[in-house]
Specification:
- The structure is a single chain.
- The chain is built from ten helices and seven strands.
- By secondary structure, it is α/β, with parallel strands linked by helices.
- The protein has a single domain, classed as 3-Layer(aba) Sandwich (Rossmann fold), CATH 3.40.50.970.
- It is globular, with a radius of gyration of 19 Å.
- The N and C termini lie far apart (51 Å).
- The structure holds thiamine diphosphate and magnesium ion (MG).
- Thiamine diphosphate binds at residues 72, 121-123, 150-154, 157, 179, 181, 183-185, 246, 250.
- GO terms for molecular function: branched-chain 2-oxo acid dehydrogenase activity.
- Its EC number is 1.2.4.4.
- Residues 308-328 are annotated as: Disordered.
Amino acid sequence: MKKLKSSGLSKEEIIQAYQAILRGRRLDERLWQLTRIGKTSFNISGQGAEVAQVAMALAFEPEKDYFLPYYRDMTACLVWGMTPKDIILGSFGKEDDPSSHGRQMPNHYGSKEHNIVSHSSTVSTQMPLATGVAYAAQLENKDYVALTTTGEGSANQGEVQEAMNFAGVKKLPVIFVVENNDYAISVGSKEQYANKKMSERAAGYGFSGETVDGSDFTETYLAFVKAVKDARAGKGPALIEMMVSRLTSHSADDDHTIYRSKEELDTLKEKDPLLAFEKQLIDEGYMTKEEMQAMDKELKAEINKATDDAEAMLDPTPESLYEQVYAE
Ligand SMILES: Cc1ncc(C[n+]2csc(CCOP(=O)(O)OP(=O)(O)O)c2C)c(N)n1
Ligand SMILES: [Mg+2]
C-alpha cells in the first residue's frame, strides 16, 4: 500500500477522507437495513468500494466538474455534495428527493445543484452523455471535466465504445471509470471479457488507461489527480479501472450466497478496504482507534437524524405524476 503522505494531502484532508468513507459505509448499511424492515423497496450497495470512490471524487472540483455516476456510487455522490438526507429521500421516493422527486428508482443519483447527472437503468448509457458534457466544455472553451463510472460487466455495452471513440477523436475532457468488482450480478469477470485488464482498452481509443487497486487510497487518488490535470489541460480523456470489492449481494433483491462460496465471502470480509484503510491510518499515525470510534458515533447520530427527517417528508401526490418528468 502506498503511504498516505505521498498523496500530497494534509493530515486534516486525510481525516476528512476517512470521515467520507465511513459516512458512506454507515449510510449504505442504513439503506440496506431500510429494505430489510420493509420501509423501502430496493437498494444497491457500494460497500467495499468506498475507499476507491472517495479517492476518485476528491481529485475533482465538484463546484464546476460534472459527475455522471452509476448506481453503486453513493459515497462518491456524498463527496460531490449530496447529503445523507438527499440520498435517503430518494430511497423513500419522497417529493423532495433531489435525484428525481421520487420518480426514478433509488440509487439513480442526480442533483442539478451539484452537477450530478442522473442515469438511466439501461447500463452505461451515462457514458455517451459524459462524452457530450465534455464536448460542451470544449465547444464553450470552459475548463470543466466530466467523470463517469460504470461496472466491468456494463463496460461491454456498445455505447461505451461509441463514447470512448468520440472522446478520443476529439480529445475531450472526460474520465471514464470502470469499477471492477469481479461480478455482473452473478456472472464472474472471466465470462465477461477476455483481455487481462479492462484499462488496456484505452489504447484502442488513443488515450491512456490505468488499473488501480481501489483499496489503495493514495494510488487511486494520484491516478485521478493526473488524469484530471491532463483532461483540464486539453490532453484528452483517460480510462481508469478501479479494482474494488462487492461485499454485498448485487442488490437487496438477490442472495449472493447462491453463487459465491463461503470461503470467498469470508476472504472478502477480511480484506474489506475500510478495515485496511483504518489500519493504515493507525499505523501511519493519523488517527487512534478511539478517535475513529468517536467519529463513528457522530456519523451514526447524523444518519439517524437524516433518516427521521427524510421519512417525515411528503410523498409525491398522485396528481403530480406527470410533473418533474419533462422540462416545463
Ligand atoms: C442494458 C442492460 N442490460 C442488463 C441490465 C440488467 N443489469 C443491471 S445491473 C447488471 C450487472 C452489471 O454488472 P457490472 O457492470 O459489473 O456492475 P456492478 O453491478 O457489478 O457494479 C445487469 C446485467 C441493465 N440494467 N441494462
Ligand atoms: Mg461488476
